[in-house]
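hi!! sorry for the late reply, been swamped w classes. u asked for the two structures so here they r. pasted raw, havent cleaned anything up. first the sequence of the first protein and right below it the tokens
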Amino acid sequence: MFKKKDKKENEKELKEKEEAKEEEEIEEKEAAEKEEKEEAIEEEEVEEAEGVEGHCGPYDVSDPDVPEGEYLDLGGIKILGKPGLSMRLVPSPDQKSIMDLAFSYGSSSLQLTLLASPRRVKFWQELRNDILSSQKGAKEEEGTFGPEVHFLTKVREGVEIPTRIVGVDGPRWMLRGIFAGPAAEGGEEKEYLDDFFSTVIANRGTEPLAPGDPVPLILPPQLLPQNMEKNMKKPGPEMVDVATKQSVQETLQRGPMFTEMR
């Protein structure tokens, strides 16, 4: 009788363990499904986030509603040319990538940087707080694309220029725009560069990147070294008309590449 009782107890314990294991598996499955739903909702919120004043970009490469036009593909960023807009490229020493990307219009400039960001974090909020705490005189204001940071940048003794930093969060990326000059305050130049910024397409890619790392930018085909061999013996930066995709070598002092966006 004693042995029979032990057997029943063992069977009961085994059954309880199996039931507990099943409950644990169900709880883990439900938790995983809940996390996936939350991530999907958060990514959807980021992708569908819209600025004020009618601006609905910048865009992710997967977005089907990007503005029409012929874009220049720089890898992590695709840009749409506008009349009067000049682009400044600083290539890497090996001429295979872009170290710096900036644009100018009138007396204003715009520097673009695409940064990798965590999947479930609004990275612009973190970066904005860092700027506000470290930049003297920086203040937050609501702008065309949401919260912006404004401050004055000293360029030389007695000369300061207004600066405005804008950030837009996307799926695992954050696009940062640094506006300087009149475009940091208001008027026609601000409207022009804001409109250009809103048409930018971001392509985060699948490359593993730490949060805050710049997404690599590449030189477009017309600026690749093999396509500039005919101009190698001539000094000066390469001038490229984005509309015609034709390059014209200028006899200027060596420096960055400049592009007239027409």
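now the second protein. again sequence first, tokens right under
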Amino acid sequence: MTFKDLNIIPPILEGLSKANYTNPTPIQEQAIPAVLAGRDLLGCAQTGTGKTAAFSVPIIQLLSESSKGSKAARHIRSLILTPTRELAIQIADNIKAYSRYTDIRCTAIVGGVSQKVQERALNQGADIIIATPGRLNDLINQKRIDLKMVEILVLDEADRMLDMGFIHDVKRIIAKMPNKKQTLFFSATMPPEITKMVKTLLVDPVKVEITPVSSTVDRIEQSIYLLENGKKQNMLNHILEDKSIVSALVFTRTKRGADRVTRDLSKINITAQAIHGNKSQNERQRALNNFKSGITRVLVATDIAARGIDVEELSHVINFNLPNIPETYVHRIGRTGRAGKSGMAISFCEKDELPFLKDIEKVIKKTIPVVKGHPYPMTGVPVYVNTDKAPKAAGSKSAYNKSSAGKPAKSKANPARKPKSEWFAKSGQTNNGRSNDGRPSRSNDSRPNSGKTNSSNSSKTSQFNRSSKTRSDRAN
């Protein structure tokens, strides 16, 4: 099948040809006709399978056809929301390439840079804007952007956009748009939580699922290094001694970690730059461009940039830290093995990350091969094995305690022991001169001339009282 078979108009076909697009990918084959037909769409496909063209091409065509012969001022008729600046800029570049022979204009609205340039682009008129939620909300609040004419809404990387961190921003933006519009969801992963939002935002959507949920690309060779704590940087340095690794994208969990890895690599003369949320947009774009051009050998990134990095012929992705969300692993390694090419995904795992590894393997339904024979092997029993055994050990200990506690309890429970009144009666004494609880009454104790017998009885009473009190305490 070719793009021409999908009823794409000639100007867009020419743009696709100029961008070296020949045949549509599976998600493009299924999504483009549905979008052209005006249907809402829920698309699930692995990263690197062509989702951007799957929604961009039909949007350009729909907007081009509806604006023919119109001399009205340009309004924002399509909004594409993305989670990261890099992804927004990448989509904008692609749309400009696809629409170069049409009348459609697009611009990217992202944070991290001065908004003056973006304001000028909006004043000149834009049919499509590709935006991150933060900067878009700022411009909406400043009344610089009007979304009342939006006809098509796209949420790219919908799973990230609709998680708890973005949901309120997305809802505020959607509230500024018409109720009647075409809505497209595209995502590399499809967690169950997204279903609730789909029911409220999509109307009778066409579902396009090219691969199983959260599956990983088969052509990516995956491996895991089980490392002793604190040896990840040493292992990374060791791996990068291999000069055949021309470029590597390294993922860390934190911004500070990304900066630390970058500094340590620079110390051994490996060119590296970091890209994360604390960097300005210009710094991030410069680092990405240096990496793409080969000036920088290693790009160290946090997950915020994971979905916006598209580097051709990237051979290696290295997970310096395993993500605690399995779907994030899919996105990370999806940076390599793109457009039919092969790639390698290497992950480092310390003891406290072993539960993350189990979760990842459960989601991707594969066991990641463990690399052996490296200089920094993990020692000791894995953490999750200890955790699994802990309940048994606790149960065993509890059973022992119950057993040992039970034996003294049986010896204390003496059925032959008699009440105090029977003790006193057995000793040949009566209750005369005693209170009801068996203690000597004050009147008897206060008699100065009670005689020898009384004194002997008083002594015996005191002895019995102390004995009964002691035995009573033991019983309790």
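hope this helps!! also noticed smth abt the second:
The mean pLDDT is 79.
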